[in-house]
Amino acid sequence: MTESELYPRMSEAIVAGDRAAAAALARDAVRQGLDLLEVVDKGYVPGIQKVGVLWEQGEYFLPELISSAEAMKAAMAVIDPELTKRNLGSRPGGRVVIGTVEGDIHDIGKNLVASMLQAGGFDVHDLGADVKLERFIDKAEEVGAGMICLSALLTTTMTNQRRLIGMLRDRGLRGKYKVLVGGAPASRKWAEEIGADGYAENAVAAVKLAKSLAAGA
Amino acid sequence: MIDAKRPKIELLSREFVDKIVDEGFTLLERHGVMVENAEALDLLGGAGARVDKNGQRAFPGRALVEACLAAAPASIELRDRSGARAFTVGGDEVHFDPGSAAVTMLDHAARAERRAVTADVIAFYKLVETLENFHFQSTGLIAADVPAAVSDAYRLYLGLILSEKPFVTGTFRVEGFGPMKDMLAAVRGGEDALGRAPLAVFDACPSPPLKWSDLTVRSLIDAARAGVPSELIPMGMTGATSPVTIAGTLVQHVAENLSGLTISQLARKGAPVIFGGSPSSFDMRKGTTPMGAIETMMIDAAYAQIGKALKLPTHAYMGLSDSKVNDPQAGFETALGAVLGALAGVNVISGPGMLDFESCQSLEKLVIDDGICAMAYRLLGGIAQRDEPVALGVFEGFTAGMSFLSHPHTRQWYRKEHLGAGLADRDPYDAWVAAGRTSIVDKAHADVARRLEKYAAPPLDPAVRKELDRIMGAYAKSAGLGALPLPKGF
Lengths: 217, 490
Fold this sequence. Notes:
The structure holds 2 protein chains of 2 kinds. By secondary structure, chain A is an alpha/beta fold. Chain A has helices at residues 3-16, 19-31, 36-56, 62-85, 108-119, 133-143, 159-170, 188-194, 203-216, and strands spanning 94-100, 122-126, 147-151, 178-182, 198-199. A 5-stranded parallel β-sheet of chain A has the order 2-1-3-4-5, with helices on both faces. In chain A, helix 1 (3-16) crosses helix 4, helix 2 packs parallel to helix 4 (62-85) and helix 5 (108-119) packs across helix 9. Chain B has 16 helices and 18 strands.
């Protein structure tokens, strides 16, 4: 298949949330020795962008969103190691550490944001749920992340988002990271109140926000 | 005389109930259940279940679960604080209680949620005490002015002092069970007496899919041994933490309930267990758990039917709303749920008073919902034959100018046959305008004040009160808390 045949199919595989097809097309591209950065840019990214549009139009719901993100993940699982092998560097978006704060086991929303960030070109380190606050900072320092994303679903645990920002300040690291908060009880007002860098109300908005912050950084 | 037929809905055919239950058994046997507690795994293993101790997973077989099911009582008798009034939780009896464990309170004037403090919790219990269609209290509001470490026992402490009604409650941490049970025993005059006449049921919530955390297992085991009923609250969310189909979620719901029941029976054979839950239709746009969705109510009514087929007492979260204020959505979701729950014969219906996905309580809504519950009870009362013949006697001496209003038959029956308006508006338009165009929410707000004014504390033996104070004080101290934020003279 030529590039002009492959790219629309890649995009379609993402829009359809077809993991197997997305990965198979990526393997095809690798086999043919195509320019993989261009493959991502012209094949897969338009797909995930279309998914974002369909979500915003109210056409797509969470099941479509998450399957598309997973199809993107499957494609990138093929492409990323090749990029590294060819010394082409990795994801353009930057490195993100994400997790649900300690005391809170809710991870559906967090998983969604993590998947969409990954699909959106970020290198995502997902620490899971009920994550000790120190771990966010340690991990961010370890991997050289530029962004820390904190999820909380309970009003009782959202205060940990504020605590983490305080901890960063205490360690003189506040300026080093963009801190994004999300979860049912969080809001733009809350983000402002605790001095976070941003709040997004859903996964699609989170990717937009992360991209704009990464671009501005 | 022909008796009233009790109106009833059943959403599933007998064949479908059997199929769902059968798959529930197979699910446990084949895929197992996560149990993050060594003692419960030992109990299950000891009873012959296949157990993977490292993976903290048990695979209870059908024979074991069936034996446990047979050992669990079909109904439970709760008694109020005085012991005088008994409530059967079983059969088709319906009892409403406020939705439990809200963290916020809706401020009527500000139309905004705020954290609840001790004074709110006190007002909440006092108000519910005056609402006759709430048979039970629930520890439905969490005070933010005490540390989280003692807030489970603290809300029960306040409730037991202020109210006569039985309680639906639960623990927030393992250490909470001891003092909470001790308080209940203090009221009853000992643990044996408490076991014979339970005053409260404890909620235990598995984490979907199919996992019992250490906290909930401890609560199950402790409650079983103390003779305190456990209310099992599986909460699958369709397509997010359980299968997206309603029937698929019901299979998981059955398996989660039966696994909890099995642990409870293995801790003590014959321990009272309620087949309950708080599952929901998952909102595929917002990622939220709407309790007011019709599919949530369908899941509830259906699993209640299954619980009855398994000969267990039942519970559901119905009669509550996802709305943030007392608006039309709050009314229609609450009324739809309360009526469907009553028609399904759910024994314990937790929900009234609640807004915002089980997280906010409103005093005004409690009063409005009491009226909804009254209507649900009236509906359950059905249509009875009052006279023989039904109406012909009333028409004896029929004339063109006959008045039904002044007929003795009207006076004899109207209060029994008809509820009255409650807070609902039934004014002619002009009268409504003249009275200031008042909404039901404003009327409810005034009614709350009236009821709180009218509230009289039910008498409590001073020795019991002293013991409650002692238990609560010791628990608070153990959590490093000095004085409790109680109002003067409490």
